[in-house]
Write a structure and sequence with these properties.
Layout (H helix, E strand, L loop, with lengths): L7 H22 L7 E3 L8 E4 L4 E4 L1 H29 L7 H10 L19 E5 L4 E5 H8 L15 E2 L7
Parallel strand pairs: 1-3
Antiparallel strand pairs: 2-3, 4-5, 4-6
Helix pairs in contact: 1-2, 2-3
Length: about 170
């Protein structure tokens, strides 16, 4: 898969937000923190992830391109808060009271655990399956595992084995 090109102006916006948010934390704690490494390698439906030991933030380039300023304002403080919590408290629950406190009191940003970005650009193709109570959408990987006989999946609600939904010819 060919990596997406992030426009320089957008990368600069990301760095400006990161540095401003880091400066807020430094002023609050009266100390300096190293600037985290930023990469644009996050895939899937996650907007970003914080790699604690590496002091790195990985951002989803597709979601950044689609949501630009909203992405910057929400995701950069969110992921930086994870790194700061790790530095101040060690390994704790990902969105526990320490993270919520860091977001609201130190970074003065709403402590939202999940984003509300449109995921159609990053959601993989799915295949329809059915159980006794509802339709399910299996990813390509799970669908192929079923076809090869390597796996079976059950509905969490009714417990029935998921079956590929049959399509009617001529649709």
């Amino acid at each position: 898969m060919k990596p997406l090109r992030i426009p320089i102006a957008l990368q600069q916006g990301v760095m400006q937000c990161l540095r401003a948010t880091l400066a807020q934390a430094e002023a609050y704690f009266d100390c300096t923190f190293p600037e985290p490494t930023l990469t644009y390698q996050q895939r899937g439906t996650s907007a970003g992830t914080a790699w604690l030991e590496q002091w790195e933030i990985r951002l989803n380039p597709q979601l950044l391109l689609e949501n630009q300023q909203t992405f910057i304002n929400e995701v950069i403080p969110h992921e930086l808060a994870h790194l700061l919590v790790f530095r101040q408290f060690g390994r704790v629950a990902p969105h526990g009271w320490e993270w919520r406190w860091m977001m609201s009191h130190v970074l003065q940003t709403p402590a939202r655990r999940t984003h509300e970005f449109d995921l159609t650009v990053v959601r993989p193709n799915t295949f329809p399956y059915r159980c006794g109570c509802q339709q399910h959408a299996l990813t390509v990987r799970r669908h192929n595992r079923v076809l090869r006989g390597e796996a079976q999946y059950r509905c969490r609600r009714c417990g029935d084995l998921l079956q590929p939904e049959t399509t009617t010819a001529g649709r």
